[in-house]
# Entry
Amino acid sequence: MKILMQGRYELLAKGGGDKVQIENTAKELRNLGVNVDIVGGPVKDLSSYDLVHLFQLDWTPETYFLAKNAKDAGKPLVLSPIHHSVKEVKRFDDEYVFDFRRLSKILFKEQHKRDTFKNIYRSLINPQKLKPTLQSINIGLKNMHIRTLSMADIILVQTEAEATDLKDTYGVDFSWVKIPNGVGEPFLKANKSDSKLPNPLGFQDYIICVGRIEPRKNQIKVIEAVNCLRKEKNMDIRLVFIGSMNSEKHFEYKYKFRKTLKQYTWIKHIESVPYDVMPAYYKYAKVGVSASWFETTGLTSLEALFCGSNAVASGKRAKEYLGDLVSYCDPGDVNSIQKAIDTEYFNQRPTVPENMFKEYTWENAAKKTLEVYHKLIK
# Structure
């Protein structure tokens, strides 16, 4: 069995949740004996592939053309939309935007038109996106998403909420299978009693926030919340950020973040940590915080729990994974973020149900994905 996994043009050059999902799923599929190629952008000749699996629907006009190419070639088509709530994205755009994103909010009320406007800007950075972006102006980005969903033989969602939102937003009926995201082997080992991970920072019981430094991830409001908590409790609580800064956009946010780092000596920022080393940073933290404005699942909260740290998350999709194991916050409300961190900082460390260690793994995701492939490949 030979599978082509395709995503956005810049997939392999730039990190992101879709790249994490694709690479980890592909790795585990290869362990199961599947031949997998990963490509960012188009592939002209699909004759050697048994099936095409596309990733990422939101914001990416090129996905429609990749889907059309697969169907024209007569290939079974699987789509992992990695779809975010349009309502949550719109709220973010309405309430908390910086730089050029402010202009899209002023010019357009409908979210897909805003996304098209942003794609024009992205095309200036990556000219490969210009042609599909211009075509999306003619066809309509929302119409392209509708057609892509209609072309797929099956949709793989990460949560039931994702399937519901896709149907509500696009009015398309489709077959879907829920395949939860997962964690890799290093995170499964971290919570075992015999785990002896060295402390990478030399201090512990800090608050950790993992993800790219950008408005969506909401680091500045996390800083405000922790600063309020420090003052209220009169405690020297440390805050650690792990994540790279986007060098091509978010200029204003990046400036504000750096300015804040200089203001508070109790904050530490680390640009990058290897994946297999990350469990140690979670293990010695007391709370892992994800106060993101929108996510598909909030995978960093799952990683924190698996490493023995308490967690704060946002959004109903995270709740589908994490249930009552974590506290939840409103990303737009600093007081809400502070209250959730306060609760978890003084809670006992979590006891994660054993079934979660079996369900939320990339190995399990790959096995379920392979079952879908077998159904489509006759």
